[in-house]
Amino acid sequence: MNAHVSTRHQTYLNAAELAFIRSQYPIVKECIYWNNAAVSPISIGVRDAIARQATLHATDTSGIMVASAPTSDKGRSLAAKLVGSTAERIAYIQNTSHGLSLVALGIDWKPGDNLVVPELEFPSNFLIWETLSQQGVEIRTMKARNGALAPDDLRFLVDTRTKLVAVSHVQFYSGFRVDLAGFSQICADHDALLVVDGTQSVGVLSVDMEGEGVDVLVVSAHKWMLGPVGIGFAAFSERAFERIKPRIVGWLSVNDAFSFHRVLDFLPDAKRFEPGTENGAGIFGLAKRLEEIDSIGMEKIESYVMELGARIRRQAKSAGYEIMSDWPEESQSGIILLKNPTVATSVLFADLDAADVKCSVRNDAIRFSPHYYSNDDELALVFEVLRGATSRANA
To answer: Does position 7 have pLDDT exceeding 80, yes or no?
Structure first.
């Protein structure tokens, strides 16, 4: 399956669906929230799922883990379905840093081994790899070309001593969507693992681990997933699962944990990477969010957000703005970056914030990251602010 939705098969959110979706997100009554690449709001359904877990905890502490098991299992299955993995290869994690640390610590590194990571990666996908230099691992950094990462630039950095390539599917500062299939082919040619931070893509862009050759996918739920903070998941290919050993180990990493037998016989599935008491509320919330995505359909979400992004870029150009994320269609993401040649980005940000438009500044540009609860009225109001800033500057 191609990760990018074919035009022939695209489906779109209709007006009734969009109205229902907006009714599930209280934040749309408070502001225009175009900042999902930072921290996202949660739906009423996710909020209520978290509350259900808390209610369960309040009434039956003795059986809470048993009672929570069906929800946890459902979440694994839906996460696997979403990203093209299997439930047996899904582990719950706290966040991206936690998931990537499991990988970095779990590989059998030898002095002289190397890995490749883009030089402008988000720190979660950079700092953990830097620590490996203390073990004699060479950290090779890949340069970006104006925010873009090309397979051809990766090719000359990978050799027979390369254990892995780590990359974010979408670059947080530029919005560039990486060609995972192109990267994975180079990794496969040298028997290296492709480790992907999917936090800026999963939940808004389709991902197919098997089809695109991804070995490890790590996702935090609090951005495009529209899930709770402090929870996420990691998905492993078969060869990654064989090569990455648990180094953060606890009583739940092993078989028959409630026998308290003190035998290091790791579980046969990815639950071996979950060493202790789980984030129950987070898992309930994430499982509900995965259910919402599955009910709506990932293709509908992606096509809606990508079309909205295209309209934002077109209107911004018409209003005299420079698009810093004007990539080819296959490299677009949910992130749109723009600048005004006559208005400082700090002034634009202040104007937007005063109008209750929530966004971020990255790479000295306004970073918009709307989601599938955004609508035409929001679009009109945002551009009213942007045109107003331009008019004042040219007065």
So the answer is: no
